[in-house]
């Protein structure tokens, strides 16, 4: 009997954690307005449902992938487009976040580098590239 209660508690805890994470993800995308902004910039309002479904299916695929740990199970023909789509999503998310809250100009004013904003952006981009390459080369390709 105690084992059933323990298993039920673990199931409810996992379900609650998943619901909280999912609600946070949806709230984050809603606040940033990624889908409406993408539709506005690309002038493709007729595909709005396709955008919404791709966000939902992408979240489900990401959840499934994180539970299954599919590392090394994909051929390069599938891994390259998947990596491309993940990169596009992360790039759009970063651009939307920057556009919505104007982090970089405010940060540049606060630390007094108004004139070197282009240099600061290049430093951020190069740091991200170098950090990603280091993580990939060191931790993934051991």
Overview of this protein structure:
With 142 residues, the protein is an all-alpha fold. It has a domain of 73 residues. The chain has six helices and no strands. The longest helix is centred in the first third of the chain and has 31 residues. It is extended and about 70 Å long. The termini are far apart.
- Integer-rounded radius of gyration: 20 Å
Choose one word for the global shape. Answer: extended
Can you write the helix and strand succession as a string? HHHHHH
Decide which structural class fits the backbone.
mainly alpha
The low-confidence runs, each spanning 5 or more residues with pLDDT under 50, are: none
| E-strand count | 0
- The count of helical stretches stands at 6
Mean pLDDT across every amino acid position: 79
Strand content: under 5%
Helix content bin: over 70%
How far the N terminus sits from the C terminus, by CA atoms, comes to 46 Å
Main beta sheet strand tally, sense and closure: none
Characteristics:
142 residues; 85% helix
Would you summarize the structure shown here?
This protein is mostly helical and 142 residues long. It is 85% helix and 0% strand.
Fold topology:
Blueprint: H1 2-32, H2 34-42, H3 48-68, H4 76-101, H5 103-111, H6 117-140
């Amino acid at each position: 009997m105690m084992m059933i209660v323990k298993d039920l508690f673990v199931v409810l805890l996992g379900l609650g954690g998943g619901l909280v994470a999912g609600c946070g993800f949806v709230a984050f995308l809603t606040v940033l307005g990624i889908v409406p902004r993408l539709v506005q910039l690309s002038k493709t309002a007729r595909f709005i449902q396709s955008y919404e479904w791709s966000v939902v299916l992408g979240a489900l695929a990401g959840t499934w992938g994180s539970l299954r740990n599919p590392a090394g199970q994909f051929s390069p023909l599938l891994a390259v487009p998947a990596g491309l789509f993940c990169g596009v999503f992360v790039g759009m998310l970063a651009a939307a976040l920057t556009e919505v809250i104007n982090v970089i100009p405010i940060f540049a004013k606060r630390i007094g580098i108004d004139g070197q904003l282009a240099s600061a952006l290049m430093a951020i981009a190069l740091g991200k590239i170098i950090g990603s390459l280091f993580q990939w080369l060191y931790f993934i390709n051991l």
